[in-house]
Write a structure and sequence with these properties.
This protein is α/β, with parallel strands linked by helices. The chain has a single domain (about 30-200), classed as Glutaredoxin (3-Layer(aba) Sandwich). The protein has seven helices and nine strands, in the order αββαβαβαβαβαβββα. The chain has helices spanning about 1-30, 55-60, 80-90, 110-120, 145, 155-160, 190-195; strands spanning about 45, 55, 65-70, 100-105, 135-140, 150-155, 160-165, 165-170, 175-180. The longest helix has 28 residues, at about 1-30. The protein is globular and about 40 Å long. Pfam families: Redoxin. One of its GO terms (molecular function) is thioredoxin peroxidase activity. InterPro entries: PRX5-like (IPR037944), Redoxin (IPR013740), Thioredoxin-like_sf (IPR036249). Belongs to the peroxiredoxin family. Prx5 subfamily.
Amino acid sequence: MSAFRTLRPLARAAAPLRVSAATRTFTTTRPAFVKVGDTLPDLEVLQEGSPGTKVNLNKEATKYNNMILIGVPAAFSPSCSAQHVPGFIKHPKTKDFDAVAVVSVNDVFVMKAWGEQLDPSGDASAMEPGASKFRWFADPSGRFTKALDLLWDGSAIFGNERSKRYTIIVEGGKVKSINVEPDNTGTSVSLAEHVLGPATSA
């Protein structure tokens, strides 16, 4: 009986150490929300035009002086097709940027078709910047979006995890500004007139 009593305090003393170690492990692996001054995720997971064309947007961003990165919850959805992306296509200040990258957690065939519909004058399957500033990237696994910490559970609406709606300005390969919709899908702070200013002032 006395041996049993001497073991119990040792077990209680060891317990806090196990909890502390677990806590430290959790905090170091938690994704960090993208912030001003960051570079884009260094991942070759985005697809452009076809499943075999993998793109690393971190490296692509270094080809441009500046770039607009648009994240949308779903290609062909009403708000994405009528407001968010068209707002940048039509805004006169978009011409001041070298490229506009549109990213969605969709398959590459959907993104290609959507790009051809919204920007028919451009080459939606171009691997390099062409006549159009707009490039359309599929993030089918969600890995790029998750690395930005902008993935959310959209299963109730879309059936799976999706990208939050956002607009990021990139200059010199680094994030200059970030505008993420607080409710994930709304159309307010990520719109062209909020990010670039009123179209009439251009």
